Amino acid sequence: MSYYTKPYIYCPLCAKPLVKTVIDNQLRSSCSNCSYIDWGNFSLGVGGVLWNNEKVLLVQRNHNPGKGVWTIPGGYVNQEEPIEVAIEREILEETGLKAKPLSIIALRDRPSENSFEKHDLYIIFLMSFQGGSLKGQKEEVSNLGFFSLEQCAALQIPQLTLKAIEVSLTDTKGLSGAGDLKLLSSLSSFYHLS
Description:
mainly beta, Nudix_hydrolase, two-stranded antiparallel sheet, 14% helix, hydrolase activity, 11 strands, 2 domains, NUDIX_hydrolase_CS
């Protein structure tokens, strides 16, 4: 999700005023006192498609944006954690289930249109069920469950979630585009694009 933030006026490292400098043909804020360069605002999120007995795990969001919408579990990556740890944590927090990532199946890349919005990158994993009992995190999830494809058709589900579910069922390999969603399917291991 992109949201508005104020640009830095002072260097976050040494507190000196930032100046505008052309770096790599882009006007960027930088510090003339230390090595800091503001490369932009970024947001990294993860989601996981988890199948069990031919049904996919979905959660109903309990807050905005998208309150009431059904989607795959996921959330933001913490600064200090690898993406595969983030998706395991998010699924456990939101659903009570343990899952391991098998592959990256899709990503959504939304560059910002101005310096106040964040560049948003969302990575979707195909997950392997490892155990646990369904129990929703009330702050984030109002309902959850495993649903067949037919049941999914009756739910309020964003296009991104539907595409991720669809691509998780295919055997094609490679990268294809669908708007701002890039689909990667049936990858044999992390980060391997065959």
